[in-house]
Amino acid sequence: MDNNEHTQRFVSRLTRNTLALVLAGGRGTRLKNLTDWRAKPAVPFGGKFRIIDFPLSNCINSEIRRIAVITQYRSHSLIRHIQKGWSFLRGEFGEFVELMPAAQQSVDESWYSGTADAVYQNLNIIRSHQPELILVLAGDHIYKMDYGPMLAEHVERHADMTVGCLEVPLEMAKGFGVMSIDQEGRVVKFVEKPAQPEPTPTNPEQALASMGIYVFNAEFLYEQLRIDAQFAQSSHDFGKDIIPALIQNDQVFAYRFRDVQKRQQPYWRDVGTVDAFWEANMELVSVSPELNLYDEVWPIWTYQEQLPPAKFVFDDDDRRGMAVDSMVSGGCLISGAKIRHSLLFSNVKLNSYSLLEETIVLPNVEIGRHCHIKKAVIDKGCSIPSHTVIGQNREEDAKHFHVTESGVVLVTPDMLGQKLHDAD
After folding, report:
1. Are 317 and 267 members of one domain?
2. Residue 210 annotated as lining a ligand binding site
3. Which of 119, 186, 210, 394 is at 20 to 30 A from 352, Cα to Cα?
4. Which residues does the annotation list for site: Could play a key role in the communication between the regulatory and the substrate sites (predicted)?
5. How confident is the model over 246-267, as a mean pLDDT?
6. Can you give 26-52 as a three-state secondary structure string?
7. Under DSSP, is residue 274 helix (H, G, I), strand (E, B) or coil?
8. H-helix segments, 167-249
9. 330 located within any domain
10. What is the CATH number of the domain that holds 115?
């Protein structure tokens, strides 16, 4: 047996004995009205996906087939999406995507107070699966990652905990847990959301930030959660409480995120603000985006409706159905309107003489005639009246919609006076 085959079998055994916990209960308040009726992991992304599909797909592609999704805030659409799109795993083979809603309150009679508490309140269920390793994942980031090498490095180092990390600009690092490591990769300092992030020794413009990805030896995690639960002053959060408490006496190591194919620091996006959400989606319509959604080696899985192809009709000079440098999903009908550098989710109807530029349109939207919309995010279910102009006058837009610092206009049904039910 050659060394590569031995390594593959070693990683395969580790992934089989790993339980992945996806923390998907957060609202994502910086996304403003996009999360009025849905949790951040349920927010649509990339024309046909939801944010939660990325960590779930990473698990499947990494051969981790035992997955639990821990939900809390506005979880209906997230739960429905997982039930429809992620029920293909075979229970008789020990494969599953299991939902753990906060409402079951199996340990305490309260909502989750932090990320560690969310795991602690589900300890009885987690223990019943008898994992050797537990992989804790944030459910709200866009990236591709093979978790197998991280699990292998955790075991080879005899670590108690391993923290996934990557280098980010200092200003961005203020929103993350920032760590310092020694020459062997052991974490010697960890500060959650520091006002003055400590730069890395090799790059004064970058800090080493936690990705919210953790590997634990199962029994070690159970014990640490029980200890943390006894401290009333604890916020019961991995970044604020668990990691700082462990780095003094336990083996906590950093794992630097590497691309699954290029072996360099790869694509990773926190789409936690309206600007970041708009930018990450707009990147996808470029000629060669960093995130390759057409990758057959590391596909992103999701639930999608059975819809007809997108259709473009009319070919007059002033009434031509067309799209340039854009992505248009199934079920869309572009009737005598123009789309430039935009991304349309499914079932979007765009009527004659309208122009769409640098705009993200979520599913089931209808845009009337003679509309001109630029640099906007149109939420699911909106019906845009004819002759609407968005993105041309910032002050006028701000009277009706949310306008970001960079000028992105967020439009939701509620802002248009269109009351929809909370199921999306």
Report:
1. no
2. yes
3. 394
4. 72, 111
5. 82
6. CCCHHHHHHHCCCCHHHCEECCCEECC
7. helix
8. 170-173, 218-229, 243-246
9. yes
10. 3.90.550.10
